[in-house]
Every structure is written in structure tokens, then in C-alpha cells.
Specification:
The protein is an alpha/beta fold. It has helices at 2-13, 26-39, 51-57, 62-65, 86-94, and strands spanning 44-48, 60-61, 98-102. Strands 2-1-3 form a 3-stranded parallel β-sheet.
């Protein structure tokens, strides 16, 4: 089974990129791998960049899943009000074993 091959790759190398044309089963395969990893006791977070893609997988958008919040510019060293705080990413990493990102080709333009 191809999804089992993908699972083996994740277990051996810590990541896998699933690619193919529309309707080829990429999302289905990723979710099967995620389910298998959950059955092994791993904490899997299903994410996507867009709201629609997140809804399709029953997950969350990347920024919501990671707990990223825009912080206000609070000093001259950080004048960009759209800067995301690294502490949120570190906190998420501590409570997640596997981050599944669907529709990775659709990141928002910033």
C-alpha cells in the first residue's frame, strides 16, 4: 500500500512530501499516515494554510494550530506589528510529535 510506504518513510526519516496531480489522493494518504501515527500514541496536528483546506481535513489553519498571534510592536527593535512570537512556536513544538501540513503549495502571500 502506498500510504504504508509513506508511513515507513516518516518513521525512518521524520518527514515525507506527498505530491501528485489533483484528485490523486494526496490528502487521503496524509490523513491515513496521521491516523496510523496517532494509533502509535503520537500527537498529530492536522493543519493547512487556508481555511478551506483546513476544513477539508478536519484540522486547523497553521497560525491557529501553532498558537501564533500577531503581537504589537512594543519597541524600536521590533517595529513590525505583524511579527509572530517565537515562544508560541516553541510551546507548540513541545506538545506535538507530528505536524501534518496539507496543501503546502498554498501558503498565503505575506
Amino acid at each position: 500500500n502506498q500510504w504504508e510506504e509513506g508511513l515507513d518513510i516518516v518513521q525512518k526519516h521524520g518527514r515525507v512530501l506527498i505530491h501528485g496531480g489533483p484528485g490523486m489522493g494526496k490528502t487521503w494518504m496524509a490523513l491515513k499516515i496521521g491516523d496510523a501515527l496517532r494509533k502509535q500514541g503520537l500527537r498529530v496536528v492536522d493543519t493547512a494554510y487556508t481555511n478551506m483546506a483546513a476544513l477539508n481535513i478536519g484540522g486547523q489553519t497553521m497560525d491557529r494550530a501553532l498558537g501564533l498571534r500577531r503581537k504589537e510592536a512594543d519597541s524600536e527593535e521590533d517595529p513590525d506589528p505583524t511579527h509572530y512570537g517565537l515562544k508560541w512556536v516553541k510551546a507548540m513544538a513541545k506538545r506535538t510529535d507530528v505536524l501534518l501540513i496539507d496543501e503546502v503549495s498554498l501558503p498565503p502571500a505575506h
